[in-house]
Design a protein that fits this description.
Helices cover 23% and strands 35% of the residues. It is globular. By secondary structure, the protein is an alpha+beta fold. The protein has two domains: 225 residues, P-loop containing nucleotide triphosphate hydrolases (Rossmann fold), CATH 3.40.50.300; 133 residues, RNA polymerase II/Efflux pump adaptor protein, barrel-sandwich hybrid domain (OB fold (Dihydrolipoamide Acetyltransferase, E2P)), CATH 2.40.50. It has a six-stranded mixed β-sheet with strand order 6-7-8-3-9-10, sandwiched between helices. A five-stranded antiparallel β-sheet has the order 13-12-11-14-20. Strands 15-19-16-17-18 form a five-stranded antiparallel β-sheet, with no helix packed on it. The complex is composed of two ATP-binding proteins (PotA), two transmembrane proteins (PotB and PotC) and a solute-binding protein (PotD). Belongs to the ABC transporter superfamily. Spermidine/putrescine importer (TC 3.A.1.11.1) family.
Length: 369
């Protein structure tokens, strides 16, 4: 399958006074897996619909391999779409469902049969060709929907929350299947989800959207470890966000003072331009909080004491919810791998929390880039 590049330039969509998508520019490389991530109403589905030709922009351009398709009908864009609800024809066998796009394109019967068999092999379901959709599980139906999409070799595949109707275990399995198929085919995929873990697992890059605009665009690692705004830090994974003031700037490091504390500590500048006296937020991920008894030592940049409110074991991780003794500081969460035989915590226990300077990321509380 030939992969294609996609270029979005100042694309905008309004519904009356409501701006569903503010002027947005975005380049998707040939063969890339890009995920549009964000909460409901963030603009991700609007952007996907515009790319697919299911909606028409008020401004801007869409180019596929440098060909302007902004005003081309959906069937002329060489784009395949996989929906959440599978959209399979219940009265057709699986092989007829997959072959349907080829029939519409008047592909010869022999070639259509060959491509259909090939698509079934790609999704690892050659044995279900003669069955009907109702005879398949949800995961199998989703793989057939993907096979029907790839059978006519579209330049770009768009996926609109395709795993939303599946249970977690099946969803995890399907994530691996879609990644495998992407590697094998090398096609360009634009994937929509509101599930942050799904986006982190599958994407080459994530386009995190908020209020109809791009909040931050980058690799999963960029967004997770180097968020450019409080929204990004808070949306992508759990985070502890502490108010602080910059005392001084030293390269990419900052001398800071946490709110309501006198002792200085350090944070990573995160590529931003900060000034002494500036109020900021400092993000520390739960797994980077070092937990010990109050008064414990160690070479840590920051230290807070607090009372244990609750303990939650969620499979592989154990989370501790802690109320800091410092007045006005928000509740914190620490996380560590769940271990059998670990010393039990007691509700109300006084704990010390610390972190290393490299794990404290300074964030300006404004719009990301």
């Amino acid at each position: 399958m030939v992969s294609s590049s996609l270029r979005i330039h100042e694309l905008c969509k309004r519904y009356g006074d409501f701006v569903a998508l503010a002027p947005t520019s975005l380049d998707v490389a040939s063969g890339e897996f890009l995920t549009l991530l964000g909460p409901s109403g963030s603009g991700k589905t609007t952007l996907l619909s515009l790319i697919a030709g299911l909606a028409h922009p008020d401004e801007g351009r869409i180019l596929i391999d440098d060909t302007d398709v902004t005003h081309s009908p959906a069937y002329d864009r060489d784009i395949g779409v996989v929906f959440q609800n599978y959209a399979l024809f219940p009265h057709m066998t699986i092989e007829d469902n997959i072959a349907f796009p080829l029939k519409m394109r008047k592909v010869a019967d022999a070639e259509a049969r060959r491509r259909t068999a090939e698509a079934l092999e790609t999704v690892r379901l050659p044995h279900v060709a003669k069955r009907y959709p109702r005879e398949l599980s949800g995961g199998q139906q989703q793989r057939i929907a993907l096979a029907r999409c790839i059978v006519y070799r579209p330049a770009i595949i768009l996926m609109d929350e395709p795993l939303g109707a599946l249970d977690k275990k099946l969803r995890d399995q399907m994530q691996l299947e879609i990644k495998r198929i992407h590697r094998e085919l090398g096609t360009t995929i634009v994937y929509v989800t509101h599930d942050q873990e799904e986006a982190m697992t599958m994407s080459d890059r994530i386009c995190l959207m908020n209020a109809g605009a791009i909040e931050q665009l980058g690799t999963p690692e960029d967004l997770y470890f180097r968020p450019r705004s409080v929204f990004v830090a808070d949306f992508l994974g759990e985070s502890n966000l502490l108010s602080a003031t910059v005392r001084g700037v030293d390269g990419d490091g900052l001398d800071i003072v946490l709110a309501a504390q006198a002792a200085p500590s350090r944070a990573v500048g995160n590529g931003g331009s900060f000034a002494a006296g500036e109020p900021i937020k400092v993000m520390v991920r739960p797994q980077n909080l070092v937990v010990g008894d109050a008064g414990g030592g160690g070479q840590l940049s920051g230290r807070i004491s607090g009372r244990l409110l609750d303990v939650m074991i969620s499979g592989s991780l154990t989370r501790l919810y802690i109320a800091p003794e410092t007045v006005g500081m928000p509740q914190l969460v620490a996380a560590h791998p769940t271990r059998s035989g670990a010393a039990p915590y007691e509700i109300g226990q006084l704990l010390s929390l610390g972190w290393h300077a490299a794990d404290a990321v300074a964030i300006r509380d404004g719009k990301g880039i």
